[in-house]
Amino acid sequence: MNLPNKIELANLPTPIHTMFYEGFEILIKRDDFTGTEWSGNKIRKLEYLAFDALNKKADVLLTCGGVQSNHARATACVAAKLGLRCILYLRGSEPKTVDGNLALSKLFGAEIKYVTAEEYDQIYSVAEKDIKKLSKQGLKSYFIHEGGSSEVGIWGYIEFVNELQKQLRKIKNKPSHIITAVGSGGTLAGLVLGKKLYNLKSKIIGVNVLKTSGDFEKIAVDLANKCSKKYKLGVKVNSKDFEILDGYSTEGYENITDEKVSLLTEISQETGIIFDPAYTGKAFYGMIDHFIYQANEFNKLMFIHTGGIFGVFAKMKQYISNSEFGLLDAENIVRS
Ligand SMILES: Cc1ncc(COP(=O)(O)O)c(C=O)c1O
């Protein structure tokens, strides 16, 4: 196999932990342990993207996302580590309180540019103006797709499957289903391609936190097949190779219902694991609802914890007010 090169940045392999919910054993693949500042799934993609950027002699990394984007924060951190400049195009306007991922991106020295939803839809043309200006200053730019989800970036999750297969050799009762949150689709595309290449038996399940299941069937299939073609992998992916659980983000990407948060805070209090509001919280809730509450068939579940912890700080009041302390105590805790 014609594997691309990467820079080793993440703490790999990430461990597999076990938790119990309503008597069911659930495996948690702790990709939130990939690092502290670059915690989460994005660093696996950035290892390949950063190699490509340095190989192309880039001086500046440019990327985009929501105001609380984990990917933007991880990119800012990698740029700081590699001595590169970083420009982030964030969808929305500057919030009154700068916290969570946004605060960290600033701390890493990234230049932040807020863009409207319309501009975001054409983000490469917005970035292109800066790329031209930088070029006049003699600086080379490297633009990273939303979520790092490109033919290069998804190698992070192709190779995740290779790592996982080695770990699963030591586990007797293998997971029948592996569940992940889906945002830009790259993690899912990499997993599906990795499943084919490394002969993983478990079914891959995505929980979409935006767009529709139909959108992601197309996005993931196209991305996986483009990568397969580019690297001559000799495999073809189709929408029957995975499943999307739709309908677990009707409140919108930037919000999360109290019902979901109350499950998450219960899990935090019983296991010490934290799930974020935009991605892992919705996906974890979706997995529990679909397989356990609605009793859909499975033998064993594995949840990929794709990180996102800093997003919790932007919603901390909601999280704490849903814990057993109640709103009054929660407010006291926030203030103290
Ligand atoms: C914490 C977290 N989990 C999951 C995802 C989804 O990954 P992907 O964008 O590869 O679909 C993202 C980013 O979008 C994320 O930040």
Provide a descriptive summary of the structure in words.
The protein has 336 residues and is α/β, with parallel strands linked by helices. It has 2 domains: 16-39 and 154-335, Rossmann fold (3-Layer(aba) Sandwich); 43-148, 3-Layer(aba) Sandwich (Rossmann fold). The chain is 42% helix and 16% strand. The protein has 12 helices and 10 strands. It has helices spanning 42-55, 70-82, 100-107, 117-121, 123-136, 155-168, 186-197, 213-230, 258-271, 280-293, 316-321, 326-335, and strands at residues 16-21, 24-30, 60-66, 85-91, 111-115, 141-143, 177-182, 203-208, 243-245, 301-305. The strands form 2 sheets. A 6-stranded mixed β-sheet has the order 1-2-10-7-8-9, with helices on both faces. Strands 5-4-3-6 form a 4-stranded parallel β-sheet, with helices on both faces. Strand 8 (203-208), helix 8 and strand 9 form a beta-alpha-beta unit. Helix 9 packs across helix 10 (280-293). It is globular, with a radius of gyration of 20 Å. The model is unreliable at 326-336 (pLDDT under 50). Bound molecules: pyridoxal-5'-phosphate. The site of pyridoxal-5'-phosphate has 20 residues, from helix 2, strand 7 and helix 7. Pyridoxal-5'-phosphate is lined by residues 40-41, 70-71, 147, 149, 181-188, 276, 279-280, 306-308.
